[in-house]
Write a structure and sequence with these properties.
Radius of gyration: 29 Å
Shape: globular
CATH class of one domain: Mainly Alpha
Structural class: alpha/beta
CATH topology of one domain: Isoleucyl-tRNA Synthetase, Domain 1
Largest sheet: 5 strands, parallel
CATH architecture of one domain: Orthogonal Bundle
CATH superfamily of one domain: Isoleucyl-tRNA Synthetase, Domain 1
Number of helices: 22
Distance between the termini: 38 Å
Amino acid sequence: MNMEGLIKGKVAGVLAKLYNQQIDPEQVQVQLTRSEFEGDYTVMVFPFLKFSKKSPEATGTEIGEQLVAALDEVGAFNVVKGFLNLVISNGYWIGRLNEAISDASYGFKPVTDQSELVMIEYSSPNTNKPLHLGHIRNNLLGFSLAEVMKANGYKVVKTNIVNDRGVHICKSMVAWQKLGNGETPESSGKKGDHLVGEYYVKFDQLYKKEIASLIASGKSEEQAKEEAPCMVETREMLIRWEANDPEVRQLWKTMNGWVYKGFDETYKMLGVDFDKIYHESDTYTLGRDEVLRGVREGIFQQESDNSVWANLEADGLDKKLLLRSDGTSVYMTQDIGTAQIRFKDYPIDHMIYVVGNEQNYHFQVLSLLLDKLGYKWGKDLYHFSYGMVELPNGRMKSREGTVVDADDLVAGMIDVARSVSLELGKLDGYSEAEKENIYRIVALGALKYFILKVDPKKTMTFNPEESIDFNGNTGPFIQYTYARIQSILRKAAESALSVPAVASVQTLVPKERSLLKVIARFPEVVREAGAEHSPAVVANYVYDLVKEFNSFYHDHSILNEQDVLVRDFRLALTKTVGNVIRNGFSLLGIEVPERM
């Protein structure tokens, strides 16, 4: 049990002893003591005054005296109005350090055969364009959430549903047929996803020209949009695709193949992966059978025009179309089908969808429908809803070609990392291969940290220059601190100094004590990040840890400390800080360089 839980339990026992009152320990309010007061944990006394019938100060003093007597870990206390501040003994904090020194998985719960299985869906790209900045936030959040859930003792399956069919895919195909002149990734030297994305933009440009021409000939705007030749061809191509036309299907496979190869390169560069990839072209018809089962079982209603609806008015929602009158599926039906096949593939206990907040209502409905169809995790599925990512100059638009391409963004950030590193001169003496690897690590660390430190629910603005600063709340600043720690440990080894397996010291200076308290919080931070589905909790904790270490390092010597016990203790403290930084950043999918 952590210290906060221990205190809550003991306070509940003290209340029973002093005032003959039985309360749930979770009703006891405990928080970290504010920095301007002496203490480590603070107990809110005000709720207990109705039991004690005494002043806040007298009540706090009575409880504090009992806690000191009952808990060896509580060395002293003080009362400030209605706040009981508890001072935890040095021995407790040093004991927590010793738990962490040699534990490579410090802060993580083990995954066992009995662990519940969480499936996390993220990425979900369309095969008509390359991944862009918005996809980066989705992928980084999904991958990090998977790592956080593993660290909380869950089995995790990472899935991706690729949107590889539909009218938007046919638009790129039509544009390539009309304008491509047989261009391929090989002939153009372009990544396949970039090439196909260019034709998606070209389709929109052609479509607008045709609309303008038709309007000039006397058509209304609505008529022009319907009758534009390229759109007519696109709709016809979709019909041919659904009828398994060999020529259309072959072109579809060829162009999607170009895109998949490009996606794989981008995923590898970002350091994200998947255990299972589903394709909408394989699953979009499955939902229809599930919906018709719902009709047979009286769950859904079929109207006289053969359309099928779910009436969710009793659940506070509206009526939802599931099958059109011609029998074709809507997106909701497709998601039901995908859920069905996943449930057959894996024994899912919890399902998490990483999808932007514009789909909040969709997943509220999907949850209800899956529950009505009998999927035990349906009602408890979790929509990891996140805000959009924008640039300083506003939102992005794929059709108009104004998106920030993921590959271009990362390449640009590597260039910035290279420029900054050369200016600082920190990599003198490194081989070119070593330098390029560090530029890559720093650039991706900057990108990932800048995105993941933000509360996922918030819309964010991404600023590449700000993200790669070596000072402040940035990935490179934290990576540089980790590299500094590794340098200290290398110098210790060169001087034949070893880090003790068990640290022991008689007294602690205030900054050692503060650093120990932050280290001890890490397991709880991991739990909180899992409970809140928020990698930002981990990111901001690691920054706090690094700030605390740098403050300690600025004021106190490590290798030149004359007292051997103190020197060895500080080496253990320093090594543990490095381990926690590495573990925390691993949950964010961020590498830490041994040297910078």
